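pinning this so it doesn't scroll away 📌
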Amino acid sequence: MHSRVSRLAVVVLALLIQLAFIVPGRGVVQAHAQDVDESVTGHADFSTAATGIRFQYQVSAIRHRDGSVSGEFENHVTNAATGEFITSAHVSIVCFTVTGNIARIGGIVQHVKGGNTPVGAEGFITLVDNGQGANDVPDLASPPGVAPGSAFAHCATGLPRPLFPLDHGNIQIRPSGL
């Protein structure tokens, strides 16, 4: 009888531990997902034929239901022919605008390695989500731009940037209301 009680206690304890960790974790994820109004996420990897520069960046931009914005993009730039490192930067996103399948993103440079972009500089990118199917044309991305006052100006009206098809990667733009 004692061993049955001990086994039952172990089973009940195991169930309680699962409930304590699994259910609240799901609640947090669902609450976070409900807080998101629109988002831009993905990875861009492309080269510019004219300059021979390869750009790689990851982006995660979230607009919360209260209107606040969070996110970042990490940019790595190399020589496409030699693979030689040129620069990398980590940018905290301060704004973004989604119009259809196009996202304009602005941010503040937080960390830099190589190059001559100072920490605190404003940067921006433009991304185009052309779909997720195998028959869709590649998504498009701009090389990052850096200029004083550019982050919010790019989000508000867009600054001219060339767009290049992705060699690798995928951009997902989820407009408000989806």
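📌 and the second one:
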Amino acid sequence: MTHLLNSGKTEISYLTFRVGLQWYAVDVLAVFEVVNLVAISPVPDVPESVLGVVNIRGSMAPVIDLRRRFNMPDKTLKLTTPIIFLRHEEIGTYGIVVDDVDDVVNLNPGAVYQTPLTERAEHILGIMDVRERLIMLLDPLKLMKTTLRDEPLFVQKSEE
């Protein structure tokens, strides 16, 4: 494993959450809001992992079910199911349905590692080891772009 980031920054805060048995994280600067399940309006002719849209603070935001996006079995959505709304200047605001929101962790950028897996999975920036738990750091922009294009999450390497 090699370090992904080696900048001089002291620490970055990440919001950690779980989907299935796997833990994930996003930079807290990308987090707009975390809410419990709200009414989602279905939209026709969108990828299966897109549940629909919601009105979040006056903006229409698509909502992605990460279980579906990551090819996991569906789980019944409950009123306590969390949605993390992420915001990116290029694509706006969108929500991701997760199983559990855990905590905010502060890490030195050097604590994020890259592996051959993260080189093939565009939506994963790296992997962190926090309290003996491996956490995959997601790239919100690439996750949304590949979802809307209904592309596979792993890049196919051409044989040379």
